[in-house]
Specification:
The chain has about 400 residues and is of the alpha+beta class. Helix content is about 30%, strand content about 40%. The chain has a six-stranded antiparallel β-barrel. Strands 1-19-15-16-20 form a five-stranded mixed β-barrel. Strands 6-5-3-8 form a four-stranded antiparallel beta sheet.
Length: about 400
């Protein structure tokens, strides 16, 4: 074998080894560069589903009606038969005020009435006698039998008797009126549950006095409230005011019954806003047939404003503003590499964390985390979460 042949093999081997090393170093550096430029992001799928545009309003439950039952007369409260939470019927006797003094007054006025009736009878009889004497004197005077003096005396007597009769009638009327007033005051010592509305049953919401209290006239004793239906008084903003109307359906939830929903309807909407809060009041009526809702509870009302069937929806965190345009970064596959490009979108309804995309039609995945590191024209991404199943 020639002496230079081993050297040739050695040189060739070294060249081949160097080429392999350079190739590995080149491709390794390129892969590192590609890996270094890929942005780690999280993604979520574009979904198609039915969406509802709900608005939520907070407020307080109020009784549909409330009425104060008071004592019309002063006196010692002898008996009060109802307490907080008791149901009362319209016309039910619930309290008794001491009536001894008024009862004695009724007896006294009845006696005065009897005297007045006797005086009227006497005055009537006297007037009748005086009237007959006067007519006789008048006839005798016309026949020239009686004198002028006798006629004048008969006229005086009949005039006086007529006056006494008028006074007796007035005294009788006065006694009768006094008796009616005393009997009315006596009836006021018995206090009944009564209110102007047509409902026949209510509940005692508050009790202000106890038995043995010395009442003053018109002093409140108990408050009765109507719970069926009940009213939710809610606050609304200017943004939602124009989309609300009387009769609109409402669903109410409360902390006391978190698992239940109570249907109702809008009953009233205030025509003015509070200058400080810039909010208006809205009243929602709820049947409350079982009485589970109580005045003073916190209520949260849900009202459906709009609905979209088979809507394209994305998470709200996928939206981003770029150059005064709202859009998303849509993930595409390019040469085996995931690329995220900015796509302007027109949004619609919002429900919870989801936003409807009206235009354009989207499919695939959108970036939800790491958006601010991406370029509008496209950036290589490495998906760290939210990969399709």
């Amino acid at each position: 074998m020639p002496k230079g042949l081993p050297r040739v093999f050695l040189i060739a081997f070294l060249l081949l080894l160097g080429g392999i090393i350079l190739q590995r170093l080149f491709f390794s550096e390129k892969a590192v560069q590609e890996t270094a430029t890929a942005v780690a992001v999280e993604v979520a799928p574009v979904r198609v589903l039915d969406m509802n545009d709900y608005r939520y309003f907070n407020g307080t439950l109020r009784p549909n009606a409330q009425f104060m039952i008071t004592s019309k007369v002063g006196g010692l409260l002898e008996k009060l038969t109802v307490g907080v939470g008791d149901r009362v019927e319209k016309g039910q006797l619930i309290a008794q005020v001491e009536d001894d003094e008024i009862a004695q007054e009724v007896i006294r006025i009845r006696a005065q009435l009897a005297v007045a009736q006797a005086q009227l009878s006497e005055a009537t009889a006297s007037a009748q006698v005086a009237e007959r004497d006067f007519q006789r004197s008048k006839q005798l005077l016309e026949r020239k039998i009686a004198s002028e003096a006798e006629y004048d005396m008969a006229l005086t007597r009949v005039t006086a008797s007529r006056a006494r009769l008028s006074v007796a009638k007035s005294q009788l009327d006065q006694a009768q009126a006094g008796l009616k007033a005393a009997q009315l005051r006596l009836s006021y010592t018995k206090i009944y549950a009564d209110w102007p509305d047509e409902d026949n049953q209510r509940v005692v919401g508050q009790r202000f006095v106890d038995e043995g209290t010395l009442l003053r006239p018109s002093e409140p004793m108990v408050q009765v409230i109507a719970l069926q239906p009940i009213t939710a008084q809610l606050t609304i903003t200017e943004r939602d005011y124009g989309r609300l109307e009387i009769g609109q359906a409402v669903t109410l939830t409360t902390a006391a019954h978190p698992e239940r929903e109570f249907p109702g309807t809008i009953q009233r909407i205030s025509p003015q806003f509070n200058e400080l809060s810039r909010q208006a009041l809205m009243e929602v009526q709820i049947p409350n047939e079982n009485g589970d809702l109580k005045p003073g509870m916190f209520g949260r009302a849900r009202i459906l404003f709009d609905r979209a069937a088979h809507a394209t929806a994305i998470p709200s965190e996928a939206l981003i503003e770029r150059q005064n345009k709202t859009g998303v970064f849509l993930v595409e596959e390019q040469d085996g590499q995931a690329i995220a490009r900015f796509v302007p979108v027109e949004t619609g309804l919002r429900e919870g964390n989801l936003v409807q995309v009206v235009q354009p039609t989207l499919k695939g995945q959108v970036v939800t985390l790491g958006l601010h590191l991406l370029k509008d024209e496209g950036s290589a991404v490495e998906i760290t979460q939210g990969k399709p199943d």
